[in-house]
UniProtKB/TrEMBL annotation:
A translational regulator that binds mRNA to regulate translation initiation and/or mRNA stability. Usually binds in the 5'-UTR at or near the Shine-Dalgarno sequence preventing ribosome-binding, thus repressing translation. Its main target seems to be the major flagellin gene, while its function is anatagonized by FliW. Its main location: cytoplasm. It comes from Sporosarcina pasteurii. GO terms for biological process: bacterial-type flagellum organization; mRNA catabolic process; negative regulation of translational initiation; regulation of bacterial-type flagellum assembly; regulation of carbohydrate metabolic process. This is Translational regulator CsrA.
Amino acid sequence: MLVLSRKSNETIKVGDDIELRILEVKGDTVRIGIEAPKSVDILRGELVQSISETNTEAITMDATLFSQLTKKK
């Protein structure tokens, strides 16, 4: 992991076409602006984790339901 220190209005470049800009630092909160091509998906990490957990639960429930349905026959 690369760790950088940045101040307000400083940037970080990722590749040729993605730029992260520190917009504001207030207490323990940092506002970040991201400039990237529309083809690049940008999601919050906790959202990705929540979706992954929900999908895992759905698969488990589907497998359990399928098992129950096949036993009844």
